[in-house]
Design brief:
binds histidyl-adenosine monophosphate, 16 helices, elongated, alpha+beta, nucleotide-binding, protein biosynthesis, Rossmann fold, 2 domains
Length: about 425
C-alpha cells in the first residue's frame, strides 16, 4: 500500500472560499498601490544562494538556518527559494539597469520561503506584498510608505494596530554603538543565553531583539543606538516624524526595534497588533541605502516594506463572507437531445454579452439540475428543454426573488437580463 500524499508541513492550500477572499484582497491592494504610483515587478522564486548571503546578511536567522537552499543537480549551481523579496527586486533592478535615469517605485507579491517552526501566522511558505522605492534619499519617501500603510489598514478596517518606529543611523554611527554594545554585553556574558553568546560578536544588535524574558533587564540597560545618532541621521528621523504628525499617523518610538535583516539603516518600522499572539508584526520595513551598491549596483538610496499576507488576512475580519463573492449570474439547465447544443450556444452568447454563466454538465433531470442552479448562487436559471430549443427560446427563472418565469429568444434574453441584473436598459 502506498503512503498517503500530503502537502509539505507549513505550506498551505488555499481552498476556493479562502482563495476568493485573497483575490478580493489582492484587488484592493493593487488599486491602493496604483493610487500611489507604484508599478509591478515580477522576479523568479529561485535565486542564486549568494544573493541572500550578501543581501540579507550571513548572521541573520534567515541565512543561518531558515533558507531552502539546494544544488541544481544538472549544473551544480547553488540556489535558494527566495526568503524575502527585497534582495531579488534589487538584483533585478541592477541587472536591467532600471535606475539608469529614473528613481523607481515598485511592488511585488508572491510566495516566500523560510524554514521556521509553523504556527498560527507563521508558515514555511508564506506570501508578501512588498513595496520598494529605489533612488530616493529624503525622509519624504519613508513617510509616504508609512502613510500609505495607514491608509490601507483604514480601508480594510483593521483594528488594534500600532506603528513602531526607530532609526538605526548610518554605518559609522552603528560601528561606534556596536563597539560599546559588545563591551557592555561582554561584561554580562555569563548571563546571556546560547543565541546571545553566539551573536555577541557576530551580530550584537540582534541580541537586543531577543524574546527571552530572562534577558530583558540586560537588554533594557544596554547602550541604545538612538543615543549614538549624528546630526544628519537625527535630522532625517525628525523629518520623518514631523511628516507623520502632519498626516496624523500615531507612532511609538521603540529604541529596541532592530529588524531581522542586515540591510537596514536609518528609518525602520513595524506594524504590530495584539490580535495575532506571538506573530505580532504583520508589516515591516525601512531604509536600506547601501544594499544596491552592496549587490553590485551604483550607490543609490532606497527604502521599502513588506506585509505578510496571511497575517493581514487573519486581521481582515470584515473581508467578504465566504462564498458570497463569486456567484455566477446565470446557471443554464437543459435536458434533451436538441436542448443541449442550443443551450451550449446560448451560454456562449450570454457570456459574450458580459454575464458570468455556469453551464450544467453531467446530465440529470430538471429537478436535480435546478437544485444545483440554486446552490450555485446564480441570480437566474436559464432553462432549456427540447420544446424551447425547437422554438429558439430560453426560459428565465429568477432564483433569488419572487417573479414570473419568462421566455425570450437569446438576444432578447440578454437585454432583459442586463436590465434586471445591472439596471441597464442600453444593453
Ligand atoms: P520581514 O520582516 O522579514 O521583512 O518580513 C515582512 C513580513 O512578512 C513580516 O512582518 C511578516 O508579516 C511576514 N512574514 C515573515 N516571515 C513569515 C512567516 N514565516 N510566515 C508568515 N509571515 C511571515 C522582509 O522580508 C523585508 N524584505 C521587508 C522590506 C521590504 N524591507 C524593505 N523592503
Amino acid at each position: 500500500m502506498s503512503t498517503k500524499l500530503q502537502g509539505v508541513r507549513g505550506m498551505n492550500d488555499l481552498l476556493p472560499d479562502e482563495a476568493e477572499r485573497w483575490e478580493a484582497f489582492e484587488e484592493i491592494v493593487r488599486d491602493w498601490l496604483k493610487s500611489y504610483g507604484y508599478r509591478p515587478i515580477r522576479s523568479p522564486i529561485v535565486e542564486p544562494t549568494a544573493l541572500f548571503h550578501r543581501g540579507v546578511g550571513e548572521h541573520t536567522d534567515i541565512v543561518e538556518k531558515e533558507m531552502y537552499s539546494f544544488e541544481d543537480r544538472l549544473n551544480g549551481e547553488q540556489l535558494t527559494l527566495r526568503p524575502e523579496g527585497t534582495a531579488s527586486c534589487v538584483r533585478s533592478v541592477i541587472e536591467h539597469n532600471l535606475l539608469f535615469q529614473n528613481s523607481q517605485r515598485l511592488y511585488y507579491s508572491g510566495p516566500m520561503f523560510r524554514h521556521e517552526r509553523p504556527q498560527k501566522g507563521r508558515y514555511r511558505q508564506f506570501h508578501q506584498v512588498g513595496v520598494e522605492a529605489l533612488g530616493f534619499a529624503g525622509p519624504d519617501i519613508d513617510a509616504e510608505h508609512i502613510v500609505m500603510c495607514r491608509r490601507l489598514w483604514d480601508d480594510l478596517g483593521l483594528e488594534d494596530v500600532e506603528l513602531q518606529l526607530n532609526s538605526l543611523g548610518d554605518a559609522a554611527e552603528r560601528a561606534t554603538h556596536r563597539a560599546e554594545l559588545i563591551a557592555y554585553l561582554e561584561r554580562h556574558q555569563d548571563q546571556l543565553d546560547e543565541d546571545g553568546k553566539r551573536r555577541l560578536h557576530a551580530n550584537p544588535l540582534r541580541v537586543l531583539d531577543t524574546k527571552n524574558p530572562a534577558l530583558q533587564d540586560i537588554v533594557d540597560a544596554a547602550p541604545k543606538l538612538l543615543d549614538y545618532l549624528g546630526a544628519e541621521s537625527l535630522k532625517h528621523f525628525e523629518a520623518v516624524q514631523a511628516m507623520l504628525r502632519e498626516a496624523a499617523v500615531p507612532y511609538r518610538i521603540n529604541p529596541r526595534l532592530v529588524r531581522g535583516l542586515d540591510y537596514y539603516n536609518r528609518t525602520v518600522f513595524e506594524w504590530t497588533t495584539t490580535r495575532l499572539g506571538a506573530q505580532a508584526t504583520f508589516c515591516a520595513g525601512g531604509r536600506y541605502d547601501s544594499l544596491i551598491e552592496q549587490l553590485g549596483g551604483r550607490a543609490s538610496p532606497a527604502c521599502g516594506f513588506a506585509m505578510g499576507m496571511e497575517r493581514v488576512m487573519l486581521l481582515w475580519q470584515d473581508g467578504l463572507e465566504a462564498g458570497s463573492l463569486v456567484s455566477p449570474d446565470l446557471y443554464v439547465v437543459h435536458q434533451g437531445e436538441r436542448a443541449q447544443p442550443f443551450a451550449f450556444r446560448a451560454a456562449e452568447l450570454l457570456r459574450s454579452a458580459g454575464f458570468a454563466v455556469v453551464f450544467h454538465c453531467g446530465g440529470g433531470g430538471f429537478k436535480s439540475q435546478m437544485k444545483k442552479a440554486d446552490a450555485s448562487g446564480a441570480a437566474f436559471a436559464v432553462i432549456v428543454g427540447d420544446d424551447e430549443a425547437a422554438a429558439g427560446m430560453l426560459a428565465l427563472k429568477p432564483l433569488r426573488e419572487a417573479g414570473e418565469q419568462v421566455s425570450l429568444a437569446p438576444e432578447a434574453a440578454a437585454e432583459w437580463l442586463a436590465e434586471r441584473l445591472y439596471g441597464d436598459d442600453e444593453a
